[in-house]
From TrEMBL:
It comes from Cellulomonas pakistanensis. PROSITE patterns: ABC_TRANSPORTER_1 (PS00211), ABC_TRANSPORTER_2 (PS50893). One of its GO terms (molecular function) is transmembrane transporter activity. This is ABC transporter. Residues 23-258 form the ABC transporter domain. Pfam families: ABC_tran (PF00005). SMART domains: AAA. Transmembrane segments: none annotated. Residues 8-19 have a biased composition (Pro residues). Keywords: ATP-binding, Nucleotide-binding, Transport. The keyword Secreted does not apply.
Length: 259
């Protein structure tokens, strides 16, 4: 009698269920009126971003990058398709419910900082909590100010800050609600390259520490190369991606897309 070898059908630990995507876009379209007709800023984009991942979005001017970010972050509504963030289908929710979800789960960093000029750095950072009817979290505010390198600047006004400092305030403000997903639209676009690198590192390291999913639009191949994955857009469609990219690979792909 021969020994029976374990068969591939023997009971085994089932494979782990794939984690729910932090962000899911399912055949997303966004059209805008253009003259007498319409222009398709997004022409059917499908993508899934893993929790905790860092994705850069690149593409020629007008390819739909900002539209993609705005739609994924609930700042804009798609004309068709589904947007699901943390399991919540934004496209099936009322505008008020989307606003609440955005306040609670989503952080957004703009190229133009968008700070409130008459509020101090500390007040700007906790503003999203106050707008959401929550207590200003002084402990987290101090932690974030230290994390982004703004210690000692709590009482300054935005007009007294450099561009890099203002963007750090905007990053701390985007993170104060402990969002699951942080979207950033060219956050280093207005900064010199050294300051831009520092701001990128702040964004990347705080997102990693706080286990956040980070999605960043950039025109800078070096910034994109810091991401786990680069998605390329062209004419409102995903035109490919690179995983663990180098600056040279990103640059080559952008040249192919005729940036
Ligand atoms: N509010 C709007 N009204 C009309 N057309 C718009 C609007 N927003 C964007 N578009 C158009 O949609 C297309 C995509 O724009 P979008 O700003 O998403 O591109 P982008 O890739 O972010 O460009 P850039 O790199 O120049 O910022 C463009 O043709 C743009 O003109």
């Amino acid at each position: 009698m021969s020994a029976t070898a374990p068969t591939p059908t023997s009971p085994a630990t089932p494979p782990p269920a794939p984690a729910e995507p932090a962000v899911l876009l399912d055949h997303v379209h966004r059209s805008y009126p253009n003259g007498g007709g319409t222009i398709a800023a997004l022409a059917g984009v499908t993508l899934a971003l893993a929790p905790g991942s860092f994705t850069a979005v690149m593409g020629p001017s007008g390819s739909g990058k900002s539209t993609l970010l705005n739609v994924a972050a609930g700042l804009d509504r798609p004309s068709g398709g589904r947007v699901v963030v943390g399991g919540a289908d934004l496209t099936a929710m009322s505008p008020d419910a989307v606003t609440r979800l955005r306040r609670d789960r989503i952080g957004f960093v703009f190229q133009a900082y968008n700070l409130v000029g008459h509020l101090t750095v500390a007040e700007n950072i906790v503003l999203p909590l106050l707008l959401g009817g929550r207590e200003p979290d002084a402990h987290l505010r101090r932690y974030l100010m230290a994390a982004v390198g703004l210690e000692g600047m709590a009482d300054r006004l935005p007009g007294e800050l450099s561009g890099g400092q203002a963007q750090r305030v905007a990053i701390a403000r985007a993170l104060i609600t402990r969002p699951a997903v942080v979207f950033a639209d060219e956050p280093t676009g207005a900064l010199d390259s050294q300051t831009g690198e520092q701001v990128l590192e702040v964004l990347r390291s705080t997102a990693r520490t706080l286990h956040q999913t980070l999605v960043l639009v950039t025109h800078d191949a070096r910034v994109a190369a810091a991401a786990d994955r680069v998605l390329f857009l062209a004419d409102g469609l995903i035109a490919g991606h690179l995983d663990a990219p180098t600056t040279e690979q990103v640059t080559a792909r952008m040249i192919e897309l005729g940036r």
